[in-house]
Amino acid sequence: MTSTLDPQVEDYLHGLSEQGLPPLHRLSLRDARETYRELSVPDEPPSSVASVTDRTVPGPGGEIPIRVYEPAADGALCPLVFFHGGGWMLGDLETHDALCRALANSTECIVVSVDYRLAPEHRFPSGLEDCYAVTRWVANNAETIGCGSDTLAIAGDSAGAALAVGVSLLSRDRDGPAIAYQVLAYPATDYAFDTSSYDENAQGYFLTRKDMERFWKGYLRSERDGTHPYASPLRTERLDGLPPSCVLTCGFDPLRDDGRRLADRLAEAGVPTRHIQYDDMIHGFLTMLSDPRLDRADEAIEEIGTEVRNELY
């Protein structure tokens, strides 16, 4: 790596080190979930939106909680279904509440955040099927949540971005809802740990290689699942027919090359793709909207908003 770490991120990482916070992979599942929530849920009031509504929709394993964010924007608003990160094992509606509010304002979409079932209690493909079920429900019930348009976009960060690609593949293969655009922030796209970024950023930048090894192990039912294209999108033979995509990657991230390779594969398949790399950022920076509040996170969310608005409106 020739780039340097953003000073605000460097201060944040030093603070975690001074607190003696152990890596997530060393914590019990319960403690890892609590720690992730403590790091993700801001103490300050989140961004204001016109309305926030919690409800449930039918899913393959029962009712799926969702949270609907309506921005203060004019016109016929499009839905954007969001899948949170957290290694398929951590995270919920609260950990990504601030990000979803910011995305609603920047994209001028009605954002629908999905509280899908988590591993290891519910392994692949349970969470993915929940995300697909909500996407289908939103496509068929856009007016119910206040959308004036049924032009649908999806988005996710980290494991949530992997789920978003899986939803796009399912929609293509099952002749499901038309997805007009997808935003994939630092996606986990392959059950393999053989890239340069896994070596360069194995530890020291919050998400570690060992964290990802634990997450994949908890998510998959078996090693064989790691080769399934709905779990590891880079293992699919065909990526054509997927929606136009915006792929974000970070320089100091074990998953950097996963995202790069996916962006390249999408482009090679004829999918209109924009790849944006934040060389000075770490994995998960989009949710750093309070303590610390990263200037680069605000910039990236505005950039995502511009991409989505240009595509949908």
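the 2nd protein, sequnce then structure:
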Amino acid sequence: MDDELKNSILKTGTTILGIVCKDGVVMAADRQVTAGTIVMNKNFPKVNKINEYLVVSWTGGVADALRTSKLIAAELKLKELKSKSRPTIKQAANLTATITYSQIRQPSMIPSIVGTLIAGFNEDSSAELYTIEPSGSVYQVEDYDANFGSGMPYVLGLLERQYKKDMTIKEGVELAKEALKSSIQRDVGSGYGIDVFTITKQGIKKVVDQEIISEYRDKKE
């Protein structure tokens, strides 16, 4: 099972990333969905708004990611109704980790392999970013993370050099765009578009919505 999990993680073709800024969190992803070496979808949103205070992005199996997304939304709503208070981002992250952990440990012909970045703002307006690895472990991100997508090495290399502590949301958005472009240039599992969201005390906003269009040009003599 361990070898199967490791091999599946290595095949997750995508680029997702989260950047912690002094005034919020930036979440971004490409749009390409692959099945092995085949591009199955060129316009798939990998950053999803769960509710008015929470955003998640996924790497791994699409069906598993969508199912987990629905489970999180439903469970958080139930928790809010029962406790009469809104769950914190940490509680949402731990819930996601629990779901992820339980899914990969159920006997199945096709194991669920999903890595998650989860960000949101608490009732005190503080914004937080967490990463949930495909194995189900969870930890708070203090600077940046790209989970286990195929574009991770290209993203982390650029962020390692250009990320600055206490950078603004505006700076974080520009850095996210550059990181995604770097990944798309080299990672065959990423491409076709860029989506960037900001998570601040003012709410969740989609600030970048770009499509990548291929062009065929005659070679000039």
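Residues 62-83 form the longest helix (22 residues). DSSP finds five helices and twelve strands in the chain.
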